[in-house]
Amino acid sequence: MSEALKKVTQEIENLRDDMVKTLVELIKIPAISPNYGYEGEYDKAQKLLEIIKDWPFDKVEVYNAPDERAKNGVRPNILAYYYGEKGEDSPRLWILTHIDVVPPGDLSKWTITEPFKPLVRDGKVYGRGSEDNGQSLVASLYAVRAMMNLGIRPKRTIILAFVSDEETGSKYGIEWLMKEHPELFRKDDLVLVPDGGNEDGTFIEVAEKSILWFRVKVRGKQVHASMPDKGLNAHRVALDYAYHLDKLLHEKYFEKDELFDPPESTFEPTMVNGPADSPNIAPGEHEIVFDCRILPKYSPDEILSDAEKLAEEVKAKYRKEIDGEVLPEIKVEVIQRLDAPEPTDPNSEIVKLLQAALKEFRGKEAKVGGIGGGTFAAYFRKLGIPAVVWATLDEMAHQPNEYAKIDNMVEDAKVMAALALL
């Protein structure tokens, strides 16, 4: 270990209490998407800017994606630059975290503390957004702060990106930045997305499955349940359709790729919705949502084509003319789609650097693989920029009583510093 890295590592330890205080301050501020009926990330972004306003970053830029639904009509994205030893000519390392969080969910299940009233207990910080993505956001901040305190310039310029809208598709976050400000990104950049991992921090994600969420809307004719012949029960049609689609997708797209965990494509019926509010109503409408995580070898277009074809078959099976209208209607609507890009090369520089850093600090060989979840590493891979997803996590994301382990935050900050210094 170099002398500089030793000093930075010790300084990160010295900053442990400051890291906890910063995480607590950030958790207090909800930053939930307007998609869920909330105001977005503006207040939390302002708090973050206030925290770092006197830090000696070389440049701090705010890019506001317009969104009239959000507070002040914007979804903020912050870039903070700390130049390397060769100034602006240094090679560059991005560390991307997101400032938005998911809604708290069922409040009755928060038994340790309320979602936005952070509590420090037993080496953990409890609260919504603590682990996802506050832990890594603060770790990245203080990896840089330690170098600043010591007057050390890293080998690589560090660009800390704090972006909006990761939890609902990145339309106002990294996707918007890449579309509106392509000049920010370079092919030879290295990218770390600390938004996925395992408990001992030995898993490096280099590949993702395609993501496809679609809603199936079935329309029949509502009728009293005692006289089903006078209408068309949309619930029955939807059940039939969902059962056969689930069966078809699992049987047709069965192949496995051991790079991923789980190794096969997954097709999960999730949300359902219908207007019937009484046991004696045969509903005229029914909706069901499918969450599909598809191995890169398969195209989401194939899945959608199968869903549409089956819709025609089920419509023919239940065809009925009521008051001059042919029913049922079955519509397939895409909610979200992200086609898997080419994986990051397991032999790329960012992978090798991270493996070396983990060997240094953890004494373990890191495993390289793929996941079913989506991260914004995929957006970099689409540009041909190598990106890895890594962090040390207890996998409390989106859970009631979500927490971040303080040791994980501190130890990950050391690894992040090593990526810039090695």
UniProtKB/TrEMBL annotation:
Cofactor dependency: Co(2+); Zn(2+)
InterPro entries: ArgE/DapE, Bact_exopeptidase_dim_dom, Peptidase_M20, Peptidase_M20_dimer, Peptidase_M20A
Peptidase M20 dimerisation domain mapped to chain residues: 206-318
Protein keywords: Cobalt, Hydrolase, Metal-binding, Zinc
Pfam families registered for this protein in UniProt: M20_dimer, Peptidase_M20
A single MF term (Gene Ontology): metal ion binding
Record-linked SUPFAM superfamilies: Bacterial exopeptidase dimerisation domain, Zn-dependent exopeptidases
Protein origin, superkingdom: Archaea
NCBIfam families: DapE-ArgE (TIGR01910), PRK13983.1 (NF010589)
Family: Belongs to the peptidase M20A family.
Protein name, entry field: ArgE/DapE-related deacylase
Annotated source species: Thermococcus onnurineus (strain NA1)
